Amino acid sequence: MPLPVVAIVGRANVGKSTLFNRLIGERLSIVEDVPGVTRDRIYAKAEWNGVSFHLIDTGGIEMDEEDEMGNLIRIQAQLAIDEADAIIFLVDGRTGLSVQDEYVAEFLRRSKKPVVLGVNKLDHVSHHAASYEFYQLGFGDPIPLSAEHGTGTGDLLDAVVDVLPKEEDEPVDDEAIRVAFIGRPNVGKSSLVNRLLGEERVMVSDTAGTTRDAIDTPLVHDGQKFVLVDTAGVRRRGKVYENIEKYSVLRALRAIERTDVAFIVLDAERGIAEQDKRVAGYALDAGCAIAFLVNKWDAIEKDDKTAHRFEEEIRSHFPFMRWAPVLFVSALTGQRVTRALDLARDIAEQHAMRVQTSALNRVLADAQISVSPPSSKGRKLKLYYATQASVRPPTFIIFVNDQELSHFSYERYLENQLREAFGFQGTPIRIRMRTRG
Ligand code: GDP
Ligand code: GDP
Asked: Is residue 180 over pLDDT 60?
């Protein structure tokens, strides 16, 4: 079930970023940071009164330089229309209602998405009356708040949670492996998908039109059902939004949430860029199975070491994903493209793998003997007992004498031991230490 998305929308300088940071800093939990992965703070996973959602700061989205103000608002509002389930429309209570606010309001009305209106910069209760003039925007009760002081934000979140769609049961085909092709613009995502659709039998979906995203494409390869996720968005919309770099990250984010497998598509010609790391970081956070597809393999000069060198480069740029397989493909010639589906099936299996508790505990006991756990102030971490709590991704809970004694590097070591023993190729694994009560 993908989390709902809440976007903060409004003209420049009303305090969108301030509100975003405030909500994250005080009341919301950020997606855990993965060391070594570059990320932008344009979205965060958030929770309020037991309801989880993604919060997007549209103010954090950069535009091309030639865009003027009007254009920027239009694109932000459009973004919210496309991606959000609910919108926080933020205005500035100190400057009062402006023409630009009305401009934004017009877009939001057309979106037909639920809108909660926040009137910011009302730092004192005595200023709250300034919010009344915003009634005329037609979005119901304006909620006075101060992003800077943190007042009124609880009321705002109450209202947001109220309008979020309740969890609906989307029909999900459990046998199908969901595969998302993600990556920055022009690496060849849609070319790869189109090539696959050309080579494999495309199924007619009996749930077409009933799901939230009718752009998922089912297909069968070698008797296995697959669903290619959210790649048609590129075709549907053209390149306009896709070319805003951060926008493609948001697209990837939505796709990643609903996928078993994420293929991170790289461009053999252009090499690895910062944006690739961001995309990879999101996939890693989401916990899906991951492989790298190096596309446009036809387009570069090669000798017998080229593939090896490229793989080394991937390993150095993505040090925490050494377990993700690399496949060199060409959407243009079709080289190894169907092999990608075999790979998807393999890593989806690893992603869903359960290991025996006895075997798990043997591996950890051996690991503990080979490399002694960390200690602090004369106390040493002791691993008592481990269990696999879940799959997709495989998640292990290790009961210990004191979880505070654990150390990132030791957990890395344990992860490597688990991988050596069980494989887990192409899937992240998670290790949680719990103090045994
Ligand atoms: P954005 O462009 O909408 O993201 O706006 P920012 O978050 O960058 O804020 C614009 C300016 O408004 C900054 O100088 C903030 O310090 C200020 N600001 C934001 N929230 C408040 C608030 O609640 N009260 C006051 N007094 N100033 C605020
Ligand atoms: P997307 O933005 O990631 O979906 O990328 P597209 O699929 O639109 O491809 C971007 C450009 O790269 C297009 O001009 C494609 O023709 C070209 N392209 C895609 N795949 C290949 C490939 O395997 N080899 C070569 N030489 N060009 C490719």
From this structure: yes
Res. 121: pLDDT tops 50: yes
Q: Is residue 45 part of a domain?
A: yes
Residue in 233, 220, 231 with CA at minimum distance from that of residue 177? 220
Do 129 and 219 fall into the same domain? Answer: no
Q: How far is the CA of 242 from the centre of ligand 2 (A)?
A: 14
Q: Is 302 annotated as a binding residue?
A: no
Atom of ligand 2 nearest to the CA of 242: 2
Ligand 1 proximity of 287 Cβ (cutoff 6 Å): no
Nearest CA to 91 out of 100, 82, 80, 83 is that of 100
Q: Is the CB of 332 under 6 A from ligand 2?
A: yes
User: 390 and 274 in one domain?
Assistant: no
> Is 187 flagged in the annotation as binding?
yes
pLDDT, average across residues 92-105: 89
**Residues 151 and 242 both lie in one domain:** no
pLDDT in tens, 189-198: 888 988 888 7
pLDDT in tens, 25-63: 644 333 334 333 333 446 777 788 888 888 887 754 443
Pocket flag, ligand 2, residue 295 (CB < 6 Å):
yes
Domain housing 428 = 357-435
Do 189 and 121 belong together in one domain? no
Same domain, 384 and 261: no
Closest ligand 2 atom to Cα of 187: 3
pLDDT at 212 over 70: no
Specify the pairing of strand 430-435 against strand 395-400: parallel
Q: What is the mean pLDDT of the chain?
A: 82
- On whether the CB atoms of residues 158 and 207 are closer than 8 A, the answer is no
- Helix then strand count (H, E) for the chain reads 13, 18
At which of 101, 132, 163 does a domain end?
163
Alpha carbons 265 and 294: distance in angstroms, whole number: 6
| Residue of the CA atom closest to atom 11 of ligand 2 | 186
AA identity, residue 246: K
- Is the torsion defined by CA of 395, 401, 407, 413 positive or negative? negative
CA distance 397 to 390: 9
| pLDDT reported for residue 142 | 94
Residue 252 labeled ligand binder: no
